[in-house]
Design a protein that fits this description.
This protein is an alpha/beta fold. It contains 26 helices and 21 strands. Strands 11-12-10-13-14-9-15 form a 7-stranded parallel sheet, with helices on both faces. The chain has a 6-stranded parallel sheet with strand order 16-21-20-17-19-18, sandwiched between helices. Strands 2-3-4-6-5 form a 5-stranded mixed β-barrel. The longest helix is centred in the middle third of the chain and has 23 residues. The chain binds adenosine-5'-diphosphate and magnesium ion (MG). The site of magnesium ion has 3 residues, from helix 12.
C-alpha cells in the first residue's frame, strides 16, 4: 500500500487550478504517460535552461539582444487601425532616460489596454531590440505591477515543451505542484548526504524549479544531483529487491545429468563457438547453485543465442522441471520455435508455443498439458504471463530482448514458479556501465564471435539521389535469384507516416518487379506478418519491403541484400540490428545505406562507424561516445534508459554510489523495516519502482 503521505503527490494534475482537459492532454504527451499525469510527474519534469531577468537597466543603457526588465510608465497606445488588423498594437512607454515601444501582434481587443493602463507604472521583461532607432520589446514575457514585481523571480526556468503547451502555463502548473509537496522523510543515509553534499528533497525540487542562481538547474549541481541520486537509488534498490527475493532451497536442483544437452549438441549441424560453450557452462553452473540465476546473455544478432537458451532449458528438463521463453513479438516467438523444433524433437524435449493466436480449445489443451508437466519448454509472447497460464514446475524463465519488457513482466513470469532462474537475452550489446544501471547486479555472458562460415557484409553509404541506380542494382540481384530486404524510413513518433512511406515504396517497387515484392509492417495482424515472412523465407517473395518490424531476430539466411532508406535517421544500434538480418548465410552480403543530402557531422560519423565494423560491441561503444547511452538502447531522451533525471554523462559516479547504497540497505535492512524502511518505500513509490515491494510481504 502506498504511504498516505504521498497521496497529494499522486493526485492527477487536473486537480491543480488552471489545469483543464486541454492541458491534461498536452501534459500526458509531454510527460510520456498513458494516463493522466500525476503531480509528482510534473515535479520531476526538470528545466532545460533558464532566462535571466535580473538585468534592470535604464532604457538608455539597455543592450539590444539581451533580456532586460525595465521599470516604465505607460504614455499612450496605438492600437492596430481597424482597416489593417494585421498591424501591431503599439504601446509607448518610458523612463527618465528614454522611450521604449512595446509591440503586440494580433492582440485581443482591450487586452493590452488592461495590461498596460496609460499613466501606470509597470515592470516589463523581455528581449530588447533596436527598431528604427527606438528600443522595442516584442511581446514582453512579463508585465507586472509593483506587487507582481516583488514576487517576480529574476530567473525563470525554461522547460522542454510540446506543441500547444505554453511555457507560462507549464510554469504556473509547476508552481502549483510545488505547493502540494508534503514533508517527506529523508531516505538517503546521513553518510551519503554528507559525502555528496545533498540538500533535502524539498529544497532540491524548489531550487531547480525556482532557481536562485543561474547554475541551480545544472545537472551537476547538488539540487539536480540529489534528485538523480534518488532516482538511481530507487532503481538499484528495486533491482536488488528482485534479486534478493529468494534463494533456492539447497537440493532444489534446476539442472540434471546432461543427457538431453548431449543429445542436442550431437544433433547440431554445426559446432558451438567457444563463447557459446562458455555461456552454456556458466548457465549450467548457475542452475546447479542454490542461488537464483540472474544472467544476461549478450550477443549480436546471429551470434547464436537461441541454441544457448535451448540448452539451458534442456538442463532444466533433465531435472524434471520446465522452462519458458518470452519474446517481445509474435514473429520472434515463432522464429525461436522454428530454430529449436528440429533439435528439440531429436532430443525428446517437449516444446510448445503460446501467443495471442492460440485460442479456444487449442489453448485450453495446451494449458492442461503445461500444468500436467507434459511440456518441457514453452515459447511465447507476453501471452505467457496471463493469469491462467500455470506450470507444473517452472524453473527457468528466458526473456528475449529484455529492454522491451519491464521488471513487472519479468516478475510476472518468474512468479509462475518457485525460485525461478532468469536468463535474459539481449541482441543490443550494452556497455558494462549500462548493464549495471539497467539490469542491476547481473552476471553477464557475451557471445563475441560469429558462428563459423559467416561472410562479411559489404556496407556502403549512397546518396538517395542515386535511388534509380539502386533500384536497377536490386533488379539485377533479383534476377540472380537473391533475396532482398528494403527497409523504409522511420519517422519519429508517427507510425502512420511510416506506413504511408513503406506503402508508397512497396507500390513503386511492385510496379517494377511485380509479384515477387511483399510488404510487412507493424500494423499488420500477427498471422498476416508471419505469412509474409514465411513467403519470404520460402523465396516466394524475393523483395521484402518492411518497416522496422524486421528489426529483431528474424532469420532468413538466404537474404543477402539490404537497402535501408533514410539511414541517417536511424540510431547506430538500430542500423546494426537491421543489418544483422543479412550476412547470415554462406553467401556474401551487401548493405546499402541510402541517405538524404546534406549529411550533418553526426550522421556522417555514424554511417562511417557502421561501414567500418560489424562488431556490435564496438558499435555500441562508438555510439556511446557519439550520443550518450539513451540511444544505445534506442531511447530518445538524452538520459539513461528508464530514467528521467539521472544522466550518464554527468552522474556516472552516482550510479556506483547508488548501487553501493542499495547493497548496504539490502544487507542491513532487507525487509525495509522501521522508519528508514518507511522512507525507502516512499522513494520506491515516487519513482514507480514499487513493483518489488509486494515480494517483501510474501517473504
Ligand atoms: P541470435 O538469436 O543470437 O540472433 P540465433 O540463435 O537466431 O541468433 O542464430 C542465428 C543462426 O545461427 C541460426 O540459424 C542458428 O542455427 C545458427 N547458429 C547458431 N550457432 C551456430 C554455430 N555455432 N555455428 C553455426 N551456426 C550457428
Ligand atoms: Mg534471436
Amino acid at each position: 500500500m502506498r504511504p498516505t503521505l504521498l497521496n497529494r503527490l499522486f493526485a492527477p494534475v487536473t486537480t491543480l487550478p488552471g489545469v483543464g482537459p486541454k492541458q491534461e492532454k498536452l501534459l500526458r504527451y509531454l510527460l510520456g504517460r498513458d494516463e493522466t499525469p500525476r503531480i509528482v510527474d510534473l515535479l520531476l519534469h526538470l528545466p532545460s535552461s533558464v532566462i535571466d531577468r535580473r538585468a534592470r537597466p535604464k532604457i538608455r543603457d539597455a543592450v539590444p539582444g539581451t533580456v532586460v526588465t525595465l521599470e516604465v510608465t505607460v504614455d499612450r497606445h496605438r492600437p492596430a487601425p481597424p482597416r489593417n488588423p494585421r498591424a501591431p498594437h503599439l504601446v509607448y512607454a518610458g523612463d527618465d532616460t528614454g522611450d521604449v515601444v512595446l509591440t503586440y501582434f494580433r492582440a485581443q481587443p482591450g487586452y493590452v489596454e488592461k495590461l498596460l493602463p496609460v499613466g501606470a507604472k509597470r515592470y516589463v521583461s523581455g528581449t530588447a531590440q533596436m527598431f528604427d532607432g527606438t528600443l522595442q520589446i516584442v511581446h514582453p514575457d512579463r508585465v507586472v505591477d509593483e506587487a507582481g514585481f516583488a514576487a517576480l523571480s529574476g530567473i525563470d526556468p525554461v522547460y522542454p515543451l510540446t506543441e500547444g503547451l505554453a511555457l507560462g502555463s507549464l510554469r504556473r502548473a509547476v508552481a502549483q505542484a510545488l505547493q502540494k509537496l508534503p514533508a517527506l522523510p529523508e531516505w538517503i543515509s546521513p553518510e551519503v548526504i554528507r559525502r555528496c553534499n545533498f540538500p533535502p528533497l524539498t529544497e532540491a525540487l524548489n531550487r531547480v524549479h525556482v532557481p536562485v542562481e543561474l547554475t541551480d538547474i545544472l545537472p551537476e549541481r547538488p539540487y539536480w544531483s540529489r534528485l538523480a541520486f534518488d532516482e538511481l537509488l530507487a532503481g538499484q534498490l528495486a533491482l536488488a529487491l528482485v534479486r534478493a527475493q529468494l534463494r533456492r532451497p539447497a537440493g532444489d536442483r534446476h539442472a540434471g545429468d546432461g543427457h538431453l544437452r548431449k543429445r542436442i549438441i550431437d544433433a547440431l549441424p554445426y559446432a558451438l563457438t567457444s563463447s557459446q560453450q562458455k555461456a552454456v557452462a556458466a548457465i549450467s553452473d548457475d542452475l546447479r547453485q542454490p542461488v537464483r540465476m540472474l544472467r544476461l546473455l549478450q550477443g549480436d544478432v546471429g551470434s547464436g543465442k537461441t541454441v544457448v537458451a535451448l540448452l539451458a532449458s534442456a538442463a532444466v528438463a533433465e531435472a524434471g522441471k520446465q522452462a519458458a521463453l518470452m519474446a517481445p513479438t509474435e514473429i520472434l516467438a515463432r522464429q525461436h520455435i522454428k530454430t529449436i523444433t528440429p533439435l528439440a524433437e531429436r532430443a525428446g524435449l517437449r516444446i510448445a508455443i503460446l501467443t495471442g493466436r492460440e485460442k479456444g480449445k487449442e489453448r485450453r489443451e495446451l494449458l492442461a498439458r503445461l500444468l500436467a508437466g507434459e511440456i518441457d519448454f514453452l515459447v511465447g509472447t507476453h501471452a505467457l504471463i496471463q493469469d491462467d497460464v500455470a506450470f507444473k514446475a517452472l524453473a527457468l524463465a528466458v526473456v528475449d530482448e529484455q529492454h522491451r519488457f519491464g521488471v513487472r513482466e519479468r516478475l510476472a513470469l518468474t512468479a509462475k514458479g518457485g525460485a525461478v532462474d532468469v536468463l535474459v537475452l539481449s541482441a543490443t550489446p550494452i556497455p558494462r556501465t549500462l548493464v549495471l544501471t539497467y539490469f542491476g547486479d547481473m552476471d553477464v555472458s557475451e557471445l563475441r564471435e560469429k558462428p563459423a562460415g559467416r561472410q562479411p557484409i559489404d556496407t556502403r553509404a549512397v546518396a538517395d539521389s542515386r535511388l534509380p541506380e539502386v533500384i536497377d542494382a536490386v533488379g539485377r540481384a533479383l534476377s540472380a535469384g537473391r533475396l532482398v530486404y528494403w527497409i523504409c524510413p522511420l519517422v519519429e513518433e508517427s507510425e502512420t507516416v511510416d506506413l504511408a512511406d513503406a506503402q508508397a515504396r512497396f507500390e513503386r517497387l511492385k510496379a517494377r518487379f511485380g509479384g515477387q515484392v511483399g510488404l510487412v509492417h507493424g500494423k499488420m495482424r500477427g498471422s498476416e506478418k508471419d505469412r509474409v515472412m514465411a513467403q519470404f523465407a520460402a523465396s516466394e517473395i524475393r523483395l521484402l519491403v518492411a518497416t522496422t518490424v524486421v528489426e529483431v531476430g528474424v532469420d532468413v539466411p538466404q537474404a543477402t541484400i539490404m537497402v535501408i532508406e533514410n539511414a541517417e535517421r536511424f540510431g547506430l544500434a538500430q542500423l546494426h540490428q537491421l543489418r544483422g538480418r543479412i550476412g547470415r548465410g554462406s553467401e556474401a552480403s551487401t548493405c546499402l545505406l541510402l541517405y538524404k543530402e546534406p549529411l550533418n557531422e553526426m550522421s556522417t560519423a555514424r554511417l562511417k562507424v557502421i561501414r567500418e565494423t560489424t562488431d556490435g560491441f564496438r558499435i555500441a561503444e562508438e555510439d556511446l561516445k557519439l550520443r550518450g547511452e539513451g540511444d544505445v538502447l534506442g531511447v530518445r531522451q538524452s538520459g539513461l534508459p528508464g530514467y528521467r533525471i539521472a544522466r550518464s554523462d554527468v552522474h556516472a559516479e552516482l550510479i556506483a554510489q547508488a548501487r553501493d547504497e542499495a547493497l548496504r540497505i539490502m544487507k542491513d535492512n532487507p525487509k525495509l523495516n522501521g522508519t528508514q524502511g518507511e522512507a525507502l518505500r516512499c522513494l520506491l513509490y515516487l519513482f514507480e519502482r514499487d513493483e518489488a515491494l509486494p515480494l517483501l510481504g510474501a517473504g
